[in-house]
Amino acid sequence: MGTTNHVPWGGLIAGYVFFVVSSTGLSLVSSLGHVFKFKRFEVIGKRAVLGSIITLLMGFVVIGLELGNPFAMINILFTSNLKSAIFWMGLLYGVYLVLLCIEFFYMIKDDHKKSSFFGLLVLISAIAAHSNLGAVFGFLTARPYWTGPYMSIYFILSAFLSGVAILAIVYFVVMKVKDNETLYYRGDHILSSLGKLLVLFIGITMFFTTWKILTGLYGAVPGKYEANMVTLTGPLAMQFWFLEVGLGMVIPLVILSLPNGFTPTRVFIAGSMVIVGIFFMRIDLVFAGQMIPLEVVKGMEVEAYRAWSIAWAEWALIFGAIGGSILLYLIGEKRLNLCTVINDDVHTTQKRELAKPIYK
């Protein structure tokens, strides 16, 4: 599967992180509406939670296949290690999935009181599970590139970016297919609001990425400095600068900063670029931390960088999971009522011709 004794975490680990981070991001963004009561974002609730369930399930599929024997996961119930961050990752994500399903059930039944209550529980469990995922990396003192409290915060903030980018893509397609009047709030299209959130979280991600690099370079700490150089000038430099930074942050920010930058088409293009950039962000994170050889025997001569690769089978599984996510979402869109009507004294759901013009 493209892994070695020196690089034991491969492409499927990066794929798993991508899917579960996306799931958390969708939950966090959905909470803006039905938990924190920002009515502008209430229209995204059902679709965001459905997407969160689907991407989390696909993450479980990917990590299960990475184990080789998915049924081995049952052993966590009988050989639990309470000191292991990976044990807590499995437990917390399991609780998170159950709460997500309950929340979605009440949302479909339009039981706003219960869905808001479970939405709050989902928010708490999502933050707990996702910050723990960051701790899986942050607790690894043998890998200085990952070590530290920064990882948990970074994972949560970048999750917001993932969630907003996915919703930008989803709602552009919904706009083209359904011509749904509930995509507006007080005359503003939901894609305009998502575009503003994209700018905010791109800026936050760029800020954290910059300081992650600077702290990694300052003082030339062994292991951390070399791993940062892997992404800046080493084997991962091309995809870091062109895909993670250029395609995933700089170009989308420029597109959305242009005059009339929050038009649906521009928000869709920016969101698509961001989600591709985030995918390679996860790849860079997983492999950069492993490419610096560990000095197991002091003075032993080792190669400069450990070789890494993503096997074709891993690519096939990751793209299969992406395809599965799209298929399951389309089934949900067809079978379920995912529209949300905002009840507000000032707001009235408006037809497209009564709302602000949608610029192409």
Automatic annotation (TrEMBL):
<dbReference type="InterPro" id="IPR005614">
    <property type="entry name" value="NrfD-like"/>
</dbReference>
<keyword id="KW-0812">Transmembrane</keyword>
<keyword id="KW-0472">Membrane</keyword>
<feature type="transmembrane region" description="Helical">
    <location>
        <begin position="118"/>
        <end position="140"/>
    </location>
</feature>
<dbReference type="GO" id="GO:0005886">
    <property type="term" value="C:plasma membrane"/>
</dbReference>
<feature type="transmembrane region" description="Helical">
    <location>
        <begin position="85"/>
        <end position="106"/>
    </location>
</feature>
<keyword id="KW-1003">Cell membrane</keyword>
<feature type="transmembrane region" description="Helical">
    <location>
        <begin position="48"/>
        <end position="65"/>
    </location>
</feature>
<feature type="transmembrane region" description="Helical">
    <location>
        <begin position="238"/>
        <end position="256"/>
    </location>
</feature>
<feature type="transmembrane region" description="Helical">
    <location>
        <begin position="12"/>
        <end position="36"/>
    </location>
</feature>
<feature type="transmembrane region" description="Helical">
    <location>
        <begin position="268"/>
        <end position="292"/>
    </location>
</feature>
<comment type="similarity">
    <text>Belongs to the NrfD family.</text>
</comment>
<keyword id="KW-1133">Transmembrane helix</keyword>
<feature type="transmembrane region" description="Helical">
    <location>
        <begin position="312"/>
        <end position="331"/>
    </location>
</feature>
<feature type="transmembrane region" description="Helical">
    <location>
        <begin position="194"/>
        <end position="218"/>
    </location>
</feature>
<feature type="transmembrane region" description="Helical">
    <location>
        <begin position="152"/>
        <end position="174"/>
    </location>
</feature>
<protein>
    <recommendedName>
        <fullName>Polysulfide reductase</fullName>
    </recommendedName>
</protein>
<dbReference type="InterPro" id="IPR052049">
    <property type="entry name" value="Electron_transfer_protein"/>
</dbReference>
<dbReference type="Pfam" id="PF03916">
    <property type="entry name" value="NrfD"/>
</dbReference>
